[in-house]
């Protein structure tokens, strides 16, 4: 008893030290050196307010003479010929207004309230002059018809790139008119070819960006993607799409670091938030998710790719009626690692798989083969370690409230559970482990002794290769 608790105490100490170092320290030091947005102060997400830059929505065109927004130069899409009746093609007006706004210091690219602006796939490219504000008060709507979509931009609709220090705000709506895209998805009708649809809003290759108070709805595919960017703050983002809309991730982060997502409400047909390859120091705080597939790291490692994701924190979230809660999903055959992840203070309401690590992920029209004996060599996987779950409570719709389905060749390590209380309305819940090592402490229900007991004989380290008893193959179709 004494020996065991000493080992646990030591392990705990090391773990917490590593987590705190890996996540909090790197965040603090990198951000203070940028002098940009302070994303991390004393554990709280703070938004440094610069009220002088706020654009009051009652004081729009023609000029801000005094007070809020003083010194700002409005560049109104209406002045460039936008009609805003939801019918006329306002793309050329948006393109001209963007060129103007981008070329001026202190410009406000203004999409006025009330208007409904139909805009085709458009690239809003930087670099722009300093202090650009993109003020979306009205609605931007995409053309509905997939067959007449611009073939030069098959995967993007509103695409912002190469911006530094810009803000996107205004309380408006970005509406992807996705219903015909959903109907033409191979997930909805198997006779359709499987091809990707546009992401509604993208921020790419940018830094020090803030996006706040926007609704993004009915995306053709993903709603909002952040790619190849650094130091991005999203707050007050609302995502709305039906639960049966295919692949409509809410917020998707790739190849980005220092991203904070706070006070967001996401209901959609796929992951509320997904974090993939080459992303680090991502903090999510005050998130409401549902309907949807939960909050996911992954999928990672598809087509034998390399993926690295580190320093992820989710603090304070409610998931309601989602297919998954907190999920890490990787394909077989990938490589790289997921390390230093904390999920804390999460409430589950009727979630199918509240806590899940799935290293046998397969989301393909054909069943993925289990690749254990491919050319007599075992296939790799994205290594998962240092994942902490703390203060997670609520209800599970299935009996497997916690499922750690890790790779036999690259087992999960240092999975830590503290203060977990998951139950189901009509039965007992349990924890399932495959090649998952770690420990739990404090109150943990369902009990998770399998994290300590995993005998490991069929996991990497055992000398002989033998086939697993149950081959978990998951499919999202
Ligand atoms: C926008 O797309 C429509 C078809 O949906 C097309 O007729 C129109 O020419 C496009 N506008 C521009 C500026 O490319
Ligand atoms: C699926 O798509 C095919 C071809 O586009 C169409 O003929 C069929 O009616 C569709 N099925 C359903 C159930 O919508
Ligand atoms: C993963 O990210 C790295 C670094 O940005 C990139 O070079 C690589 O292409 C990405 N891999 C995939 C599969 O997207
Ligand atoms: C978990 O909950 C306890 C009790 O409410 C609280 O004291 C502790 O700070 C929480 N842990 C985290 C990481 O927020
Ligand atoms: C609860 O009951 C429903 C309906 O009978 C069933 O589908 C579900 O699996 C049960 N849940 C558990 C955790 O046993």
UniProtKB/TrEMBL annotation:
UniProt keywords, alphabetically:
Cell wall, Cell wall biogenesis/degradation, Glycosidase, Hydrolase, Secreted, Signal
Question: One Pfam annotation, family name?
Answer: Glyco_hydro_28
Instruction: Classify the source by domain of life.
Output: Eukaryota
Subcellular location, record wording: Secreted, Cell wall
Which Gene3D superfamilies has this protein been placed in?
Answer: Single-stranded right-handed beta-helix, Pectin lyase-like (2.160.20.10)
Give the Acidic residues compositional bias ranges.
Answer: 45-57
Family matches, as SUPFAM superfamilies: Pectin lyase-like
- Which parts of the sequence are annotated with region: Disordered? 45-67
Q: Where is the signal peptide?
A: 1-24
Active-site residues, Swiss-Prot/TrEMBL: 293
The record's family statement is: Belongs to the glycosyl hydrolase 28 family.
Q: What is this protein called?
A: Polygalacturonase
- The species this protein was found in: Platanthera guangdongensis
Source lineage: Eukaryota, Viridiplantae, Streptophyta, Embryophyta, Tracheophyta
């Amino acid at each position: 008893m004494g020996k065991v608790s000493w080992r646990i105490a030591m392990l705990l100490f090391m773990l917490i030290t590593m987590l705190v170092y890996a996540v909090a320290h790197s965040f603090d030091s990198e951000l203070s050196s940028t002098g940009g947005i302070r994303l991390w102060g004393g554990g709280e997400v703070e938004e440094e307010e610069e009220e002088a830059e706020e654009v009051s929505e009652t004081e729009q065109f023609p000029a801000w003479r005094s007070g809020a927004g003083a010194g700002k130069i409005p560049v109104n899409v209406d002045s460039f010929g936008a009609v805003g009746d939801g019918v006329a093609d306002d793309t050329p007006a948006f393109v001209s207004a963007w060129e103007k706004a981008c070329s001026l210091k202190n410009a406000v690219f203004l999409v006025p309230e009330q208007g409904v602006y139909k805009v085709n796939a458009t690239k809003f490219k930087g670099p722009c002059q300093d202090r650009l504000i993109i003020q979306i008060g009205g609605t931007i709507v995409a053309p509905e018809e997939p067959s007449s979509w611009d073939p030069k931009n098959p995967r993007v609709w509103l695409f912002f790139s190469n911006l530094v220090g810009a803000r996107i705000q205004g309380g408006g709506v970005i509406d992807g008119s996705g219903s015909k895209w959903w109907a033409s998805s191979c997930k909805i009708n198997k006779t359709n070819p499987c091809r990707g649809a546009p992401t509604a809003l993208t921020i790419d290759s940018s830094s020090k960006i803030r996006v706040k108070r926007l609704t993004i709805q009915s995306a053709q595919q993903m709603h909002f993607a952040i790619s190849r960017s650094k130091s991005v703050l999203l707050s007050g983002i609302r995502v709305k799409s039906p639960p049966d809309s295919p692949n409509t991730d809410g917020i998707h982060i790739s190849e980005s670091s220092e991203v904070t997502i706070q006070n967001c409400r996401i209901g959609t047909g796929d992951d509320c938030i997904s974090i993939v390859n080459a992303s680090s120091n991502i903090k999510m705080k005050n998130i409401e998710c549902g309907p949807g597939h939960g909050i996911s790291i992954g999928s990672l490692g598809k087509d034998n790719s390399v993926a690295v994701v580190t320093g992820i924190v989710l603090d304070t979230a409610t998931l309601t009626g989602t297919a998954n809660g907190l999920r890490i999903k990787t394909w077989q055959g990938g490589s790289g690692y997921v390390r230093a992840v904390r999920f804390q203070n999460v409430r589950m309401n009727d979630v199918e798989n509240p806590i899940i690590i799935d290293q046998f992920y397969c989301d393909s029209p054909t069943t993925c083969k289990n690749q254990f004996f491919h050319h007599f060599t075992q296939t790799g996987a994205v290594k998962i370690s240092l994942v902490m779950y703390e203060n997670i409570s609520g209800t599970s719709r299935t009996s497997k409230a916690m499922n750690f389905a890790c790779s036999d060749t690259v087992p999960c390590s240092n999975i830590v559970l503290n203060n977990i209380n998951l139950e189901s309305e009509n039965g007992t819940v349990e924890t399932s482990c495959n090649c998952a090592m770690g420990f739990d402490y404090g109150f943990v229900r369902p009990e998770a002794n399998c994290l300590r007991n995993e005998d490991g004989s069929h996991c990497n380290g055992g000398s002989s290769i033998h086939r697993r008893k149950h081959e978990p193959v998951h499919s999202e179709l």
